[in-house]
Amino acid sequence: MPIYNRIADFQDELIATRQDIHENPELGFEENRTSDLVAKQLESWGIEVHRGIAKTGLVGVLRGTGDSSRSIGIRADMDALPMSEEGNPTYKSKNDGKMHACGHDGHTTMLLGAARYLAETKNFDGTVNFIFQPAEEGGGGGRVMVEEGVFDRFQCDTVWGMHNDPNLPAGTIATRPGPLMAAVDTVKITINAVGCHAAYPHIGIDPIAVAVQLYTAMQTIVARNVDPIKSAVVSVTMFHAGSASNVIASSSELTASIRTFDPEIRKLIEDRIREICKGMEAAHNVTIDINYDNGYPATINHAKEASEAIDIARGVVDESMINDDIAPVMGGEDFSYMLEARPGAFLWIGSGKTDNDPGLHHPEYDFNDEVLTLGSSYWAKLVETRLAKAS
Q1: Which uninterrupted H or E stretch holds 322?
Q2: How far apart are CA 387 and CA 68, in angstroms?
Q3: Are 375 and 113 in contact (CB under 8 A)?
């Protein structure tokens, strides 16, 4: 893994920082200790720090040499997941029910490493905005930062993000133009029927029978309404009804997760779910309440920046470690809001140690410290390329 020699010099300090953050995980919009740690390090390197953006988020501003008005934003997420750690590293989570199971501790540390190097060398002409974002794991911190005007306050011609992937060999750099990660929507459907004694079903209306038919009908949306060349997932993940064996309940609930890449397909699925529910109401004489939550939009890379991301990777890793057309995944990512606001690209950095690493969101997952210096070097290379000094 070719890395900047200066960044390699402080590898041990990066590892210490990453493991400290891992040991003290904080959930979305509660990253007070993490935000303090990040701010303290940035300020110690002479980087201008702006705090209180999306509550616990912050931006570090660094200007290079020269008078260029060019600018760039690089984002790292800081929050942990609400789950207990089952692995046993020496730096195991001290906070019950909280764990860095997605590698945000590593993402934060890699950006800190790049910030330190760039503050020392200033081998660029323009402005770098180091964006440390809260609440990626379902809280939509990226959306909140955009809504609070992060790009109005901090000019960014382009914006960039990176996520580790333990399914890719350590040191891999991968991305693609266009959709990289899916839009994530959730729908909760409540069927209001008529409860009765289980011995006399004819005097009630069975919400479970309606829910079973609704479940089956929802499975036909992708199979029979979505172009087979396009991708979508409708997964019913929760089904709740009843509390006694001799009672037909008065209501039932279904919850589904919907994943799409294409905005038109996203709307089609929502429309079909609403139409199917309306039909079920008429067919079974029930009322159905629909709570449809449009979550993170699809993470869609801009073609020019995705191509540039790969070109920069060629200056950091061997060609054999580059994938310029990796398959999209159905997971979601709130960096999508930033890509809707500014041109840019999101990429994967391989963090796999073995062929059997615990995956993201696994209770034994742990970020691979071997890729910290590589990630920092990539960000440094990106800045020095995008904001290159005039020759």
Answers
A1: strand 322-323
A2: 8
A3: yes
Closest CA to 80 of 150, 160, 141: 141
pLDDT digits (tens, 9 = 90+) for 136-158: 999 999 999 999 999 999 999 99
* pLDDT one-digit tens code per residue, 327-380: 999 999 999 999 999 999 999 999 999 888 999 999 999 999 999 999 999 999
Beta-bridged to residue 63, according to DSSP, are: 127
* Residue 54 Rama label (left phi>0; alpha psi -120 to 50; beta): left
Query: How far is the C-alpha of 75 from the C-alpha of 159, rounded, in Å?
Result: 7
Percent of the chain as helix, strand, coil, to the nearest 5: 35, 25, 35
Strand order in 287-294's β-sheet? 232-241, 251-260, 183-192, 287-294
Q: What is the maximum alpha-carbon separation in the chain?
A: 87
Number of residues that make up the chain = 391
* 389 Cβ neighbours under 8 A, 6+ residues apart: 64, 65, 66, 123, 124, 125
Structure token pair of residue 189? 């459907």
CA distance 244 to 335: 45
Give alpha helix (H) positions in the chain: 5-9, 11-23, 32-44, 104-121, 141-147, 150-153, 207-225, 263-284, 303-313, 335-341, 372-386
